[in-house]
Amino acid sequence: MGQYVVTGAASGIGRAIKSALEAEGHMVVGVDLRDADMCADLSRKDEVEATIREIHARCPQGLNGFVPCAGAGVENPNKKLIPLVNYFAVVQMVEGLMPSLESRRGAAVLMCSNSATMQGHDEGYVQSLLDNDRDKALELAESLMGFQLYGGGKLALGRWMRKRSTSAAQAGVRLNALAPGFTHTAMTEAGMKDPVVGPSMKAFVKSIPLGRGAQPEDQANAALFLLSDKASQIAGSILFVDGGHDAMFRPDAF
Questions:
Q1: What are residue 20's DSSP bridge partners?
Q2: CB neighbours of 38 closer than 8 A, spacing ≥ 6?
Q3: Whether pTM exceeds 0.90
Q4: DSSP characters over 94-107
């Protein structure tokens, strides 16, 4: 069977994806701050580099797939963690693991968000991420709200994936992304309890066309499809798994 790496594997969507891959008989290396096969602080560039090296050592024959799920939520009081973990660590790991993915003609599934398309974003912040300008992005982070940092970072990640997908595909690697809507995880439950963002999050959930928020397993099912041979002709796509929210808010955009 295959060899996979999932970050954020100790909880939420990451844990659901890891469990689903293991249920299919695959070998999965989970990465998280704690309670994982490999423990690392992905907000630190040096620890990301060390994690990449260790993955290469553990999986010398290459990877069939990589799913970076580790993330910081809108309610996180350390604003800098949001771009560091949600964007910079993801891009750094995808690039660092690309040779392993190429060796097995593997696939990577990134975690975007439907929040990336539901509101206006600070284009200076988004562009600083795409320019890989950490200093500017972290400086701007101090003046932006959590939802701007989160949604803007997911927008930048989707744009980066789309721009990178052509060269990756030509090397035999399929890059795609999920855009989850509200999903019941520890991170979103913390947001629901936050006095600032909680009320808007609760209203957001009530407006989901299918009438419920997603479970982590809903996202895992979609991720496993994109990783599988059944999606062998899908590259550079963003799959919305949001109960119909994106279609409701943007019926003319696709």
A1: none
A2: 29, 30, 31, 51, 54, 55
A3: yes
A4: HHHHHHHHHHTT-E
CA distance 14 to 31: 9
Rg (CA), the chain: 17
Helix (H) or strand (E) holding 118: none
Token couple for 158:
């989707």
Identity of the amino acid at 62? G
What pLDDT band is residue 190 in, cutting at 50, 70 and 90? confident
Q: Do 245 and 214 contact (CB within 8 A), yes or no?
A: no
150 is catalytic: yes
Rounded CA-CA distance 179/250 in Å is 14
Residue 222 to residues 1, 67, 180, 226, 252: CA-CA distances in angstroms?
A: 19, 12, 10, 6, 24
Buried b (16+ CB within 10 A) or exposed e, 186-217: ebbeebbebeebeeebeebbeebeeeebbebe
Residue 119 has pLDDT above 80, yes or no: no
Q: Which of 4, 87, 125, 150 is catalytic?
A: 150
**pLDDT above 80 for 208:** yes
- Using CA atoms, how far residue 62 sits from 14, 43, 128, in Å, is 20, 25, 32
Question: Which residue did the predictor score with more confidence, 76 or 50?
Answer: 50
